[in-house]
Amino acid sequence: MLRLFILLIVWTLPACHAQVLWRSKRNIPLTQDSPDVPFRDGGKAAMPRSQQLALIREDPLWRKAIALHYDALVMDGHIDVPTLMVSDPNYQFRRRHKTPPHVDLPRMVEGGLDAAFFSIYVGAEYPEGRESINRAKEEIFYLRRQLEGLEDSVRIATSVADIRNITRTGKKAILLGIEGGHAIANADLEVLRNFYNEGIRYITLSHVNTNSFADASQSPPKWGGLNEAGRNLVREMNRLGILVDLSHVADSTFWDALAVSKSPMIASHSSARVLTENVRNMTDDMIRALGQRGGVVMVNFMESVVNRQFTKAVMEEVYERLRNDYNNNYYMMWQVISMVQREKGLRPGNLDDVIAHIVHIAHIAGVDHVGLGSDFDGATMPDGLEDVTKLPYITYKLLKAGFSEAEVRKILGGNSLRVLAEAERIAASLKASP
Q1: Residue 22 lies in a domain
Q2: Which structural domain range is residue 412 located in?
């Protein structure tokens, strides 16, 4: 018996050591699991069996990663599939495609993605007002049309209860979020309420364009953050239970929204600026503050915003070219980044870059305040995360980094579920108030 006990201790030492090492290096406190976080959907591993066996032969930790990944609720904060549904007549959500596109229903199943915010993306080219409203409505219409007849496999969710009920039965839950606050024309609260009734559950306060109520990160400032109409919009979003999304906004808009919002907020697809210099990423102060208010940073996979070779020095060259050659038109930032990347021979971003951002945000804000916001079908993906079928590799890498199973469940989807639940709770209390 003693011999068996000693063998058991020796066998568990490596995993324990990795977890202790991860914590000691990053000084992250143990967090108590809330009842909402360890939600299990009990999904079966849909990764091809031959691939599973090959990975397990390569590293036995894959056995644990596969079991955990398909049992956890995996939730993505930002996928741009609705744009494809409108613009590409050959795209059918029900059919498997070659990459790209990055997402369709068969590959969601294979990748173990259980729930996702599909982005109702309204680009800066749509003027604020009737045109931007109509564009958002058009994408919602096309999305609903492509989901017709798929009720046995996928359903639209508008609440945490919906997500739980849908995913518990093996179906996929689709939530709707608007990217581009100018779709809420001039911060019109009646337009906002109508979109809530259409199923919208988050709104990105801006896209690349500063609008009539909020400054954006890629446009010259107009308001110094949020103006009064923008602040009222945030208050009404809190009352309705629509998450305030701070991706794409100017730093000043971030701080203004933080001062106004009673509900925790999200960054649906942003990463850490200290690792990859970019105005689209968040500073450590912003990450810390969002976490302290109960929010979640959903890490963007976009190659340009996770690639750690884009240092401050490299990006200063990008910004200099934007100033000199493009008249400070930061809409052109991604093209200039690609140009500089080619000229300097910088490697593409990769899976390890994404993991580095997750680890960093967990260190700064706490492991309860980081999630996934891929930007699938809206951006160039890094090596190793070419499409949605690669999501199990994130689970494996997080376990490899020393995260516990409970912590991995939080990052994969538990944190996103919690912040939505808290927004619902606060909305109910605000509606009950005089």
Answers
A1: no
A2: 43-309+347-432
